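Priority: medium. Attachment 1 of 2:
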């Protein structure tokens, strides 16, 4: 057990930023499968978005984006008008996207990923208004962005380091996505994003999956690469799993996964996610590889991981880092854990600095007012 300071999370959620203000309560269901709560059919039920006891300030530019002047409104006021085709077309058109699907929660089930074109921004915002669930129907990824995919139109000569598109997903629930059938761009069950910037605000990820095995495939919910100038992916007031029966599952990184990407996670929850591969990375002889990072899997160079006001609990691995796997190949980068709780994550092994966290023994891990046990 490791305690730095004394943690009594008794804060009220106050996630705000200059570009969106308070993230709001949104989908505020219970913290587990309880009674008739079923976010698979009712986006306002089930585990809520974010950690209500988080209390960490959200930097300007990391909160909710302004959606007052959408380029596209999906739907014409009824649930029936909010089709997968309409949503996919809206994503292709880019810009700010909102929904008008009537007063009740609605689930839009896709049969193929919605793909972002690199010249339709520079800012692309998808806001579900806490009424919209996007489902992969158990067969497909939900969102795909790749600045280095020629099919999505190259916009610069340096696709691996460009400042756009800048994608924000907010006030949405992502469920039942499945990227197991992807071969070239694997991982990222719900969202696969390379280049530009990615931001996730007040959103939930339930029962998403990616490949079961593999040494460097991961991110049942989100897989990220090549963020502009090494800037972090912001995850704010969001939930990955959140209760028994809602967790996300992949070979590595039951929640999120990346290579060479930094993350800043604020007032969020990772629970009941699973890394089910076997053999680690590189894979041990006779194994398919994987099984690390129950909640979070970070690999690569020059990266950082920051958690503030975040709960990481009841995640599971086979191999390493039941909560967090953070391995910098060139021994750079660091981990900051502030006003957070990491507890009851099980399976596998970890290095000796902190339980449930796998990192090189020379990786700086700064822990402030947090509980790791």
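Attachment 2 of 2:
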């Amino acid at each position: 057990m490791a305690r730095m300071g004394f943690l009594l999370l008794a804060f009220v959620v106050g996630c705000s930023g200059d570009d969106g203000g308070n993230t709001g309560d949104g989908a505020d269901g219970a913290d587990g499968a309880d009674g008739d709560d079923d976010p698979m059919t009712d986006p306002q039920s089930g585990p809520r978005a974010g950690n209500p006891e988080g209390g960490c300030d959200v930097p300007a530019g990391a909160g909710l984006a302004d959606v007052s002047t959408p380029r596209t409104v999906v739907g014409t006021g009824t649930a029936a008008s909010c089709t997968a085709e309409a949503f996919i077309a809206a994503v292709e058109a880019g810009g700010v996207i909102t929904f008008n699907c009537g007063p009740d929660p609605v689930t839009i089930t896709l049969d193929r990923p919605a793909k972002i074109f690199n010249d339709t921004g520079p800012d692309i915002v998808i806001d579900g208004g806490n009424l919209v669930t996007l489902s992969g129907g158990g067969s497909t990824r939900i969102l795909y962005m790749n600045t280095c995919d020629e099919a999505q139109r190259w916009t610069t000569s340096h696709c691996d380091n460009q400042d756009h598109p800048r994608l924000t997903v907010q006030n949405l629930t992502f469920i039942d996505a499945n990227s197991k059938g992807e071969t070239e761009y694997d991982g990222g069950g719900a969202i696969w994003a390379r280049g530009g910037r990615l931001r996730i605000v007040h959103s939930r990820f339930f029962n998403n999956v990616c490949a079961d095995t593999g040494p460097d495939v991961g991110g049942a919910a989100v897989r990220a690469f090549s963020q502009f100038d090494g800037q972090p992916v912001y995850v704010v007031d969001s939930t990955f799993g959140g209760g028994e029966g809602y967790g996300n599952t992949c070979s590595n990184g039951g929640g999120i996964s990346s290579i060479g990407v930094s993350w800043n996670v604020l007032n969020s929850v990772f629970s009941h996610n699973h890394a089910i591969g076997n053999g680690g990375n590189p894979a041990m002889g006779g194994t398919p590889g994987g099984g690390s990072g129950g909640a979070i899997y970070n690999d690569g160079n020059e990266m950082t991981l920051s958690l503030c006001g975040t709960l990481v609990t009841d995640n599971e691995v086979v191999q390493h880092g039941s909560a967090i796997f953070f391995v910098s190949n060139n021994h750079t980068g660091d981990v900051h854990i502030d006003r957070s709780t990491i507890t009851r994550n099980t399976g596998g092994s970890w290095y000796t600095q902190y339980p449930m966290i796998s990192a090189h023994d020379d990786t700086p891990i700064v822990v402030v007012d947090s509980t790791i046990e």
